TrEMBL record, chains A, B:
One of its GO terms (biological process) is response to amino acid. One of its GO terms (molecular function) is sequence-specific DNA binding. This is DNA-binding Lrp family transcriptional regulator. PROSITE patterns: HTH_ASNC_2 (PS50956). Residues 1-31 are annotated as: Disordered. CDD domains: HTH_ARSR. InterPro entries: ArsR-like_HTH, AsnC-type_HTH_dom, Dimeric_a/b-barrel, Tscrpt_reg_AsnC-like, Tscrpt_reg_AsnC/Lrp_C, WH-like_DNA-bd_sf, WH_DNA-bd_sf. The keyword Ion transport does not apply. One of its GO terms (cellular component) is cytosol. Pfam families: AsnC_trans_reg, HTH_24. Residues 30-91 form the HTH asnC-type domain.
Amino acid sequence: MDSVDGLYSDGMPKDRRSPGPAPRPAPDGLDEVDRELVRLLTADGRMANNALAEATGIAPSTCLARVRSLRERGVIRGFHADVDLGALGQPLQALIAIRIGAHSRDEIDRFRSKVPGLPGVLSLFHVSGANDYLLHVSAATPDALREFVLDHLTADPAVVHAETSLIFEHIRATPDARN
Amino acid sequence: MDSVDGLYSDGMPKDRRSPGPAPRPAPDGLDEVDRELVRLLTADGRMANNALAEATGIAPSTCLARVRSLRERGVIRGFHADVDLGALGQPLQALIAIRIGAHSRDEIDRFRSKVPGLPGVLSLFHVSGANDYLLHVSAATPDALREFVLDHLTADPAVVHAETSLIFEHIRATPDARN
DNA sequence: AGTGAAAAGCGCGCTTC
DNA sequence: GAAGCGCGCTTTTCACT
C-alpha cells in the first residue's frame, strides 16, 4: 500500500450520482471529470466520444466540449500511435549519456536543435547532474548504433563524452499509476 | 546532410506512380503503405480513417483493414494521449539511475514488478552498463520527489544506489526522423 | 488483397434548461 | 456549464472483382 503520493488524498468517497455542479474546488483548472477524461484518453487515445461520455457520466455534447477544452488548454498535447520499433526493423534501443564541453551558447543551441532530427532519435532529455543530456535512440543493428554514436555524437565538437547503454527492456507504466 | 543512417539505402529512385502491386520486396511484412500509415498515426493518432486512406492513396475500407492488421500483428500497440503533466499538477520530472545489489532472482523480479505501479512512475528502462535501471518519474514538488526516492528506492533492499537527475527539458523527436 | 455501395453509428452544431 | 435533438459525415460490413 502506498502512503507516499500525498496528492489529492482528501479521503472523500467519490459519489457523483446527483446532478448539479461538482462541489470539488479543483486544485488547478481541472475537475474530477477532466482528470478522468485525461486518464481514459491516456489509456486509449482512440476512444470514441460516446464511450468517453458514458464512462464519465456526462452527455456526449458536453464530453466533446470538455475534450476540446483540454486540447486547447494544452492539457492534452496530442495523440500518438505506440509503435513496436522492432516490427519496423529497429529492434535495438539505447540510452546515451552525453556530456557537453562547449562554452558558447550558440554551440549548445546548435547541438540541441540538430539532435532531435537525427535518424533513430526518439527523445532527448536535458538533465541535471554529471551528464548534460540523455538521448534515447533506436537502431537496426549494433553497427548502425555504433555508427550513429561515432558520426553524430563523438564527432560533434560540442560533445565531450558519450556513454551508450543498451536498453534490454522498456516497461511503460500504466496511466492510472499517476493518480 | 546525413550520410549515415544506412537503412534502406538501396539507392533506388522511389517512383510509385504506376498502378499494380508494389515491386518492393518489403524487409519485413510491411510494405510502403503500411509504413506510411504507421508514420501518419504516430504523428496524429486520432487521424480519421478516410483521411488516412486519402493520404496513402487507398480506399477507406482497405485502409481500415490495413490499420486493423497492423494492430493485430502488434506493429501498432495502441494509441495514447500525450498529456502535459504540469497541467495535472506534476510539473517535475526526473530520471533516476538505479543500481541493484540483489543476488536472488526473486528479489530482482519483485523490484521490477513493483516499480511500474508506484505513483508518478512513467517508465522503467532496464539497461546495460554501470547502472541496472533508469527510472523516469514525475512529481508534484521537490519534496514529493525526494520522498519517492527515499520511500520506494533507497528503502528497497534490492537497491544499492539511486542517483536522481532532474529533467530540465524533454524534447520528443518528430516521427519522420525514424524513416 | 482491394474496392464500392449501403447500413449503422458517430461527430458536432444548435437550442433549451 | 450541461443536456437533447438532428443533420451530415464517417466508419464498418459485405458481396464482388
